[in-house]
Amino acid sequence: MDVTDAGHGMLIDAPATFTIGAGNTGQYLIRPKSDPGGTVSFTAASSRTDGATVPSSAVSFTSSDWRTPKPVVVTGVSPGIVTISLSVTSATADYPATLVLPTVRVTVAFLPVAWFSEAAYTAGEASARSEVTVSVGVFGDVLPGGFEATYALSGTATADDYSGRGSAVDHATMTGSVNVPEGSKSAEATFYVTDDCDDDDDETVVLTFPGALIRGTTTITIADDDDSARPEIGVRGGPAVAEGD
Known about the structure:
- This protein has strands spanning 10-13, 18-21, 25-32, 40-46, 52-53, 59-61, 70-76, 80-90, 104-109, 113-116, 120-124, 129-139, 147-154, 162-164, 175-180, 186-194, 203-208, 217-223.
- By secondary structure, it is mainly beta.
- The protein has two domains: 10-109, Immunoglobulin-like, CATH 2.60.40; 113-223, Immunoglobulin-like, CATH 2.60.40.2030.
- It is elongated.
- The protein starts with 9 loop residues before the first strand and ends in a 22-residue tail after the last strand.
């Protein structure tokens, strides 16, 4: 059953704990409680624009679409607590400009920064595919949905020398990534070293996190196990054989 007069005010659909990262965006939904009797517009405002911002454009509803929730987008700027308020900026008789509307409390958190737990790893070509596990740590809060820690790949090793599990290696872009789950402070990326018969010097895979606070680089050294010695081939004569024997 549709109720066209549920009292004048605002219905807000927002998480009990509304948290976004600094530099990230989030949103919550709003709609009038009842038919506004025309076109009504609401404008959001931030209590601290240095903490979070909202668009200056108004969110409008009419008598035909007031039941459909619409978003208010919030962009985190710097860590802290911010209150987002709403006001009527285009009024109707049922929704006057003096109407008091509820607010939403937003927590802006530090964005995680990734780093490598170890500075170096070593892998050999002793088997068809050796495995190396690279440990990644993060500073900051990992929000719902997790944090994708992306690193650049370089070094002397080529695509024929190594691969990775899942998103750990992308040879096309020379990047890789690992997902740190919500609430966690670490994750692991798995690399596979391919055994070959090439007589190479030791090769390297270098992983780099741009903007890391500490230990933004780690190196995987692939130790070559192929013998560089060439086999000696010689001809040795046998006993003399007389004609007719």
